[in-house]
């Protein structure tokens, strides 16, 4: 059975000589032709316009083709009158611009999610950065979405984000558009892997930090693998009491407990002597985290990104033989994200250390004797 796109294509082939085209936008069919200005329009010349004509179904295509021929006859006989069609231009069926669809999408997004720093940050990063690349004054259609996606670099995180976000917008607007085939092969595994700081380098950098408060921040990030912003949302009373199992009270992934690796660093870095820099916390998590990154980059000139302390903690837990399910929970992300993200940093040396630890266990399995 032929789908609606094929039927529209066939109908447009028959309407070609009439100078009229059928277009599907969302759940509606429109006739597109060169028409006189609408009543009260500021334009004076004939120009390409759309007429809302039918529901986007197979029967709707038949009706649209028939109406297209009638429209052509009216234009030829100079009997065309906008009043015959404007009554069908109901507000609910009016062709919306991309700007209007984005506004409705945003309204729906925050009706389903409480407006918080976290959801606003997600909106800006995952949606707004993509939507700003769209021609907002144009009518939303599949071709525009496709071209915006293809303008991004293939097999990148950006391409994948554009595909996911514009697929959601298309679904919201009732467009039949699946860009999965353009998404490419990007994954955590395809990212360029940079070298992580060794424990020795981490200790050297800690010792070179002059500001005591930012030195404390560095120490706790290194010891617990926190996200940058999470250091400002800890149960500080537990820390002051000397409890080495810290509690994250809020942040990107909410409440969780984390164990120190290395545990000796709790004492070495004096983490029970809490020292928190005074920064503006009345912002989203990304902005708070960026302040931490900028501080270490601009003033302390770290030879690595401060977020690498988190990555180094993850790899360190593997060396300790911690089950990756537990490590993932402590880091506040899924097992799949954990294994996909950190597998690339596991080299032969890490495998050898894990092997040595395993075979030296007194309760390890033994082979039967010959």
UniProtKB/TrEMBL annotation:
The keyword Membrane does not apply. GO terms for biological process: DNA integration; DNA recombination. Transmembrane segments: none annotated. Coiled coil: none annotated. The keyword Chaperone does not apply. One of its GO terms (molecular function) is DNA binding. This is Integrase. The lineage of its organism: Bacteria, Bacillati, Cyanobacteriota, Cyanophyceae, Nostocales.
């Amino acid at each position: 059975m032929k789908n609606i796109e094929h039927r529209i294509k066939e109908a447009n082939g028959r309407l070609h000589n009439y100078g009229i085209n059928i277009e599907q936008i969302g759940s509606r069919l429109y006739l597109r032709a060169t028409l006189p200005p609408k009543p009260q329009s500021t334009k004076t010349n004939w120009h390409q316009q759309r007429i809302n004509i039918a529901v986007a179904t197979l029967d709707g295509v038949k009706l649209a083709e028939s109406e297209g021929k009638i429209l052509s006859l009216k234009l030829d006989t100079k009997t065309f009158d906008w009043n015959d069609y404007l009554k069908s231009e109901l507000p609910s069926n009016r062709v919306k611009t991309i700007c209007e669809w984005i506004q409705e999408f945003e309204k729906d997004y925050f009706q389903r999610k409480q407006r918080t720093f976290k959801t606003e940050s997600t909106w800006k990063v995952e949606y707004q950065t993509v939507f700003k690349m769209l021609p907002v004054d144009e009518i939303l259609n599949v071709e525009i979405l496709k071209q915006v996606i293809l303008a991004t670099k293939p097999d990148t995180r950006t391409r994948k984000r554009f595909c996911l976000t514009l697929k959601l917008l298309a679904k919201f607007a009732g467009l039949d558009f699946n860009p999965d085939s353009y998404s490419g092969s990007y994954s955590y595994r395809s990212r360029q892997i940079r070298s992580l700081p060794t424990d020795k380098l981490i200790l050297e950098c800690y010792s070179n930090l002059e500001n005591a408060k930012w030195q404390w921040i560095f120490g706790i990030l290194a010891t617990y693998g926190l996200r940058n912003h999470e250091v400002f949302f800890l149960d500080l009373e537990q820390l002051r009491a000397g409890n080495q199992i810290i509690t994250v009270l809020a942040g990107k992934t909410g409440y969780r407990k984390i164990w120190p690796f290395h545990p000796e660093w709790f004492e070495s870095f004096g983490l029970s002597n809490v020292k928190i820099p005074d920064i503006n916390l009345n912002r989203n998590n990304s902005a708070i985290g960026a302040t931490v990154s900028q501080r270490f980059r601009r003033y302390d000139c770290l030879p690595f990104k401060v977020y690498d302390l988190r990555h180094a903690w993850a790899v360190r837990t593997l060396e300790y033989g911690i089950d990756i399910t537990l490590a993932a929970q402590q880091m506040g992300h899924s097992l799949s994200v954990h294994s996909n993200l950190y597998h690339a940093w596991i080299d032969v040396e890490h495998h050898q250390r894990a092997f040595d630890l395993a075979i030296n266990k007194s309760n390890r399995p033994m082979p039967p004797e010959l």
